[in-house]
Amino acid sequence: MARHIYDCPLRWSDMDAFGHVNNAVFVRYLEEARIDFMFRLAPGDGSPSFSGGSVVARHEIDYVRPLVHRHAPVTIESWVTKIGAASLTIAYEIKDPEQVYVRASTVVVPFDLAAGRPRRISAEEKAFLQEYVEEPEAGRGGRGGRGDRGDRVERAAA
Questions:
Q1: What is 74-98 written as a DSSP string?
Q2: Residue 5's closest CA among 44, 36, 50, 47?
Q3: 153-156: long-range contacts (C-beta < 8 A, 24 or more apart)?
Q4: DSSP state letters, 1-68
Q5: d(Cα 132, Cα 124) in Å, to the nearest integer?
Q6: Exposed, middle or buried, 80 (CB in 10 Å: 0-12/13-18/19+)?
Q7: Phi/psi at 127 (nearest 5 deg)?
Q8: In whole angstroms, what is the distance from residue 146 CA to residue 158 CA?
Q9: CA distance 101 to 27
Q10: H/E element holding 154?
């Protein structure tokens, strides 16, 4: 099982009046990591995988601790916890090596923009996603499971 790694820069404008990253900004961080995972890492040269569109059906976010501005990026690890016929669930941890700030999950539905309706996950997409499947840990609701240190990791520069 692999996890996708995305280094996300913090912006001064991400802070709220209380001096930490605003809760709504974390949704944008998740989006950046998800887009990098699904589109930039899609298999094959010129592959149409995931390029037809997708919609978010659900977000679930646990805010573990405040994140304050600094110059170093925050790491977002992403992996897949469920692949259905026409949806997938991506889990995330927004973290540093020593602490987790957010655990989250997103249900994504592939979408045919031209037809204006959901579509099924293609065989190519499923094969790509299978490399990132991690079973949820008991009591964690599918978010934040920790794999073996031997897990393959894909790193994406922000």
A1: EEEEEEEEEE-SS-EEEEEEEEETT
A2: 36
A3: 153/2, 153/3, 153/5, 154/2, 154/3, 154/4, 154/5, 154/41, 155/5, 155/7, 156/4, 156/5, 156/6, 156/7, 156/36, 156/37, 156/40, 156/41
A4: -EEEEEEE---GGGB-TTSSB-HHHHHHHHHHHHHIIIIIT-SSTT--TTTT-EEEEEEEEEE-S---
A5: 14
A6: buried
A7: -60, -40
A8: 23
A9: 13
A10: strand 152-156
CATH of domain 2-156: 3.10.129.10
Tokens of 22: 């605003």
Q: Which helix (H) or strand (E) covers residue 126, if one does?
A: helix 123-130
Q: Max CA-CA distance within the chain?
A: 47
In order along its 158 residues, the chain shows pLDDT tens digits of: 799 999 999 999 999 999 999 999 999 999 999 999 988 666 566 677 777 788 999 999 999 999 999 999 999 999 999 999 999 999 999 999 999 999 999 999 999 888 999 999 999 889 989 999 987 665 444 444 433 333 444 444 44
114: tokens are 């031209």
> In the chain, what are the domain boundaries?
2-156
